[in-house]
Amino acid sequence: MTGRLLRYPAERALEDAAFGQGLTPTRIFAILLPVWQVEVRATTTDGRPYELIDRYLERGIAEVGLGTVAELAGFFALDHALVDRALRVLDRIGHLRWVGGRVELTDLGRQSHRDQVCYVARREDRRKLYFDGFRSVPLSRAYYDAGLVTFLTVGEIPAATAEEGARTYRMLHTSHGFRREALAELAGRADRDHYNLPTRIEHPESLGEECVYLPMFVVRATGSAGRIRQLVYTQASDVADPELGALCESTPEILGVLESDARAVSAEQTEARIKTWLTSKGIAEHPPTRTAQGGWRVTLPAKSFQPDGPVPLAKMGSFAVLGTDLVHLWCADRGARERAFLERLDAYLGRAVRGDAEQVKSRVTRIVCQFSLGDLGFGEIRDLAVRAGSGRLADRLAALS
Q: What is the largest CA-CA distance in the chain?
């Protein structure tokens, strides 16, 4: 099943859960999470790094008590004209005031000196902020990219989900109103930039709230110690969002729905669904097996993944998604896995890859893990590509190493 609302296939989320997070996926859900879209009015202040001379002049005023051009120029051994120009700039941005022929810091100047950030442009601002619909937890900066992330109103949901084919989105409901104290709490956080806020925000006030919905995958997965995890994947990234995952795991109203849906399907029903799928592919002679962590796997011969076979080579090492059920598709033939690995790697490196070189190398390492090819270094992968006749892939790998 391919992504429309989420723009990438569910299999990619499962691969991250299995090979990026080291867990065993056992079920996947498509969820619409209620989110409070809050229009906020506040006094905001932007910040920038200090110019070197400005920072020292303010220190001289605040810490030494210097108050005239002559005193500051003499103390720092600077030209009088240079100090005079710098003080005029600090005056214009609201850091200084003149009292009885001497200069002193304003409240904004003292706050800037205290925080070692040059605060400027104090103004009234209106913006939309996003909080989850259950506990009013703020969403991170990634969810403010309107070109990437879509929030659906109630009226938009039917048309948006009608295009999803066999996938059914479970719409979560909340009885909690927006907790307005969350605005002041967010304004007081030191990591405001993480939540798409300016350097300083004062007196935030809600002008109105609307409940909108965020499409997401939730992957139920099991760790090696048997702990059940809920991993969340949204339009913002095909890597699990730890903040939304923690929200799902710690919010009874969300966790209760997920656990109820998971219990509604027995292991026997899942096995029967997988067998039906295998039969439809003409490979029913290869029965699924259940792992100790509760996942399902079917091991197929290499011929099943040939161009005229029932399963595309691109599916090897990945998952077949059957509603909320899933099965890992495996092959014991190392040569076939190497071919599938090179095809997957070439497709990944051939796309417009986001991220720095280290992120790309990390993803390549994850793909190696996905096909159980051992501890392959970039040189060995390049040699593998050369032996397979893929000079283009070898060149891409050489550029990364």
A: 95
The radius of gyration of the chain's CA atoms, rounded to the nearest angstrom, is 28
Q: What is the band of 3 on the pLDDT scale with cuts at 50, 70, 90?
A: very low
The strand pairing partners of 348, in sequence order, are none
Residue 260, C-beta contacts closer than 8 angstroms, at least 6 positions apart: none
Q: Which residue in 311, 295, 291 sits closest to 303, CA to CA?
A: 311
Q: Residue type at 319?
A: F
- Nearest-CA neighbor of 345 among 381, 310, 377? 381
Q: Is the pLDDT score of 352 beyond 70? A: no
Residue 121's pLDDT is 67
pLDDT beyond 70 at 215: yes
pTM of the model: 0.83
Q: How many H-runs (helices) and E-runs (strands) does the chain carry?
A: 14, 11
With tokens 């048997």, the residue in question is 226
Q: Would you say 304 and 320 are in contact if contact means Cβ atoms under 8 Å apart?
A: no
Are residues 174 and 257 in contact, defined by beta-carbon separation less than 8 angstroms?
no
Q: What is the overall mean pLDDT for the chain?
A: 92
Q: Which of 222, 223, 254, 217 minimizes the C-alpha distance to 239?
A: 217
**Would the pLDDT of 270 be above 60?**
yes
Give the 3-state secondary structure percentages of the chain, helix then strand then coil, rounded to 5: 45, 25, 30
For residue 25, the model assigns a pLDDT of: 98
Q: Which two tokens stand for residue 213?
A: 């919905």
Rounded Cα–Cα distance for residues 339 and 138 (Å) = 44
E strand intervals along 177-234: 200-222, 228-234
DSSP one-letter string for 58-107: HHIIIII---SHHHHHHHHT--HHHHHHHHHHHHHTTSEEEETTEEEE-H
Give the list of residues 6+ apart from residue 314 with CB closer than 8 angstroms, or none: 340, 343, 344, 347
**307: nearest Cα among 298, 318, 316:** 316
pLDDT at 201: 83
Tokens 């032996």, residue located? 387
> Residue type at 200?
R
Strand partners, 46: 120
CA distance 22 to 372: 13
